[in-house]
Every structure is written in C-alpha cells, then in structure tokens.
Amino acid sequence: MAVSRGRSGACTTCLRRRKGCDQQRPTCSQCRRACITCEGYPDRSGVSFVDATQRTIQKAKTVRRPRTSREGSTASVVKHVRAMASNDVLAVKATQSGHVDLFWRQYLPNGREIPCDVAHSITGGWVHTVQSLYRSEDSVLQGILLALALATRGYCDNIPSARELGLRLYNDALAEASTVFQLPERAKSNSFLAAVRLFTLYESHYGAQFKLQSSASSGFGVPTQAENWLTHINGDMSLLLARSPSSFIEGDAHRLFVDGRFHMIYLEIFSALATRKPTPLASPEWLTIPWSKHSKTSRDQLLDILAHLTCIVSATDDLSLDLSSGTLSVVENLSSIASACQSIDERLAAWEKEFAPEAIRLLATRSSDLDAHLSQATAPSLTFHELAATHLMTLFWASCLTLAQVQQDFCEMTREERTSPDRYLTDSGPCFRNLMATLPVLFEPTVGLYRMHVASAPTHIAVRHLHYLPDGAERQEAQTILRKCLGAPASKNLRVMVRSLLQKSPADAKLVSLLQGLE
C-alpha cells in the first residue's frame, strides 16, 4: 500500500540544486545527465512503500489471464499486479515502483547507482538505459523488471509468495515476448532488446526454479538453467543481427550493444550446448560502425580480441574433425591456427602494456586476506573505481587463460604433427595466480547481486582451468579459493549458474565435484 509522506517526490540532489526531477528510480535522469551522484529519495518523498499483504498477493495469483487478441498478443503482464489494488491505480503504481526501487538497491554495488565515468567500463551503462526505457510503458520490459524485483525480494527476504508471483510474471512476460518476436517493428525497438537482457538476468539468478524431474537430470537439481540462459542469449543475438550495425551508433542502442556483446562472445567460446563457431560480431562492420561516434574503452578493445578468439576456437574444432578423418587440409589448418594464436597473444600483450598498469595500481591497496574479503564485518570498503579495475583485470587474465586453454588443446590434438612449439608472450601461470588473488574482490558483500555480471565468466574460466593444472600445491590452493568464494551464502545464485554450465559439458562435468558440499 502507499502512504503519503509529503509533497515533493524529488531526489535529495535535485531538491538541493533546485532542479526539476523526473523521479526515476533508483536515480533520476537529471543527475545522470549531469554525471553527478544522485543521493536517492529520502523519507520526504511522496510515497513510502509497504509490501502487499498475503491476501492481495494471493488475489493476484488467482486472477485469470484475459484472452489474447486477434493478433495473438497477450495482455500486459502488469495487469496481474494491478489486481493487487484494482480500484486504486496510484497505489498499484506506488507498489510497483517501490519493488523496482528496492531491486536496484539490492542489485547495484554498495546499493548505489554506478557513476557515469565508471559505468561504461564495467557493463553498468545498461542500468541507466533500462531506467530510461522503463518509462516508455513497454509492457514486456515492465513485466520482466517487476518479475525480477519480486523474485529478488522473495529470495533475499525469504518470502515464498513473492517468489511465486515473480515466477508467474516472468512466465507471462515470456509469453508476451514470444508474440513480440513476430512483430518486426516492435522487436527491433530498444525497449524490447532491454527486456531480453532482463530475461537473461532473471535466468542467471533464478533459472534454477525451472527444476524438471526427467532422465536428463544429473541429480544436482538444475538440468535446464543453462539451456534457458543460452536461449535468451541466442534471442539477444538474433535481435542484434536483425538490425544493422549503424543502428547501434549512439544513445540507448549503443549502450545496449556494447554492454551486451560479452556474453554472446563468451557463449561462442565455451558453449557445449551448441556448435562453437565464430561470432558474427567479429566481422569488420560490427567491430567498427557502432563506434563511429564513440571511442572504444579498454574493455571494448579487450572484447575485440576475444571476438577474434572465437574464430580460433571454431578452427580448432574443425581441425579435430580433419585429423580424425584424414583430410588433406590438415597442414594448412595447422599453420593458420598457430599464426592466429600468435596474433591474439601479441594483441593481449600490447593491451596489458597499455592498460594494465593503471588498473593494477588501483588494486594494489586491496587486502590479500581471503576471509576478510568475504566477511560482511571485515570486508574492506570497495570504491566503484576499484570495482571497475577488478572487473577489467579479471577479464583480461581470464582472456589469457582462454587462449592458453585453446593452445594446450591444440598442442595435445596435434602432438605428432607439431615439431617446434611456438613461444608466446603471455604466460598462463602468472595469469592464473593473479586471477586467483583478485577474484575474491568480486565476491565481497558490497558488490551485491551485480556479482553475476562481473564474476560469472572469470569464475567459470578459472574452474575450467583446473583441467590444465597438474595435481599439486597450486591446484589445491586454487580449489580452496574457489570453494570459499562460491561457498559464501551471497554467492548461491552464481554457484548454481556455474554448476549448471559445467554439467552441460562432458569434459567439465567432473569439475562439478568441486562445488559439492557448498549448499
């Protein structure tokens, strides 16, 4: 329900600056445009939010869905929530806004908006974009964001009814999205692309709800999460490719593109759920045109290197088939892959020389005490710039390990044909040790639910790298670090997601044992 607390609904910053405030949550667009910190909405704001009662939530759950129209589109998901207070529209909007506001505070690092000068370096710009597009009244976007908010409240505060309603809203938003995919104009909108990103986010955090009792289950309880996550990533890719690179040059579209392409590239490298192939985003037009009006950040340049690495992964898979079938093109492919690996290695070394020193300088003051990082009471304060530096360097070291894994697979595959091993500038040993020393920062309590965005990929790559380490002290130490990070209560969603990905790859399945006993 909504309770009046005063006249002005403006944020504290706009009130002090005497500026008009549009009251967007968790921060207003006035502050975002000015690139200043929005101090949020104190108790003087127009409405305070109180959870719906058990009776109203139950009422929402039992509302019958309206019939679809002739075009086949489903009714707005938000109508389910309107049933909470069907005769009080203001109370409904207040309740929705309150849940969404609380979600952003639980999701964002330190519970605060990521500053503009940092957001573009750590995939944080999409948060600003979603807030802006949320006001467009797009029913799919509103529905999935509210589903996320309710699910998060349900899991964080152990409210089963909120979890159930969040799942229902998710399913309804998904049904409506399937219809929108058939409507080209709407499917190409920025708001729908943002909604698909939120489907992916929901799946990564709460996909374990889709527990199916089938023969495909391996006993760990999440047999379908990785597939559902993959489906949304593929849908995201199809929406991008349905538009030209020139449609992502500026504004919300540019931010959605540059912040979202990592998971698509990551998918092509590590997915055991689909044929690994070069990402279309590695083509020259997709690597240049979207930046016609913007300079590439250090993160953008690192993702360019990873995009080219997908070509090597695909070529290595093809080489494996050639070797097994005795195809005459083996020698030519060997030379091409070795040359490509050398080129990627040189680019990584050049990137490290240009960008790593400043990032490492910011990390130099972080404590090396693993247990201190993971404790709510003793974790050192984490600034946004330190978080950005940690994200950037863990992504770099994970990229180096990815190349090393591809190289080692290549060497083992061609043991008899290869006579003189290449010398590489990038040494996987120090990279792995640096990653293990820095990864705990991303598991600090203040990182919040945002951890899934910045820690899932480097954690997955680190766990996979145990394949390539001999038994010994380094491997045992790495396993201890990973178990402590993933065993923290706040890391449950990430742990379940990594476990689901490992289960779907025959080569990685044995590593699932590393995560046993952490529930």
Helices, strands, pairings?
Elements: E1 2-4, H1 12-17, H2 29-34, E2 47-49, H3 54-61, H4 78-82, H5 89-107, H6 116-119, H7 125-134, H8 139-156, H9 160-180, H10 184-187, H11 190-206, H12 225-241, H13 251-270, H14 284-288, H15 298-325, H16 330-363, H17 370-374, H18 384-413, H19 428-438, H20 451-465, H21 473-487, H22 492-503
Helix pairs in contact: 3-9, 5-8, 7-11, 7-13, 8-9, 8-11, 9-11, 11-12, 11-13, 12-13, 13-15, 15-16, 15-18, 16-18, 18-19, 18-20, 20-22
List keywords for this structure.
1% strand; two-stranded antiparallel sheet; disordered N terminus; 22 helices; 2 strands; 519 residues; mainly alpha
Protein described:
It holds the Pfam family Fungal_trans_2. It contains 22 helices and two strands. It has 519 residues and is mostly helical. It has a two-stranded antiparallel sheet with strand order 1-2. 44% of the residues are buried.
Describe the structure concisely.
This protein has 519 residues and is mainly α. Helices cover 60% and strands 1% of the residues.
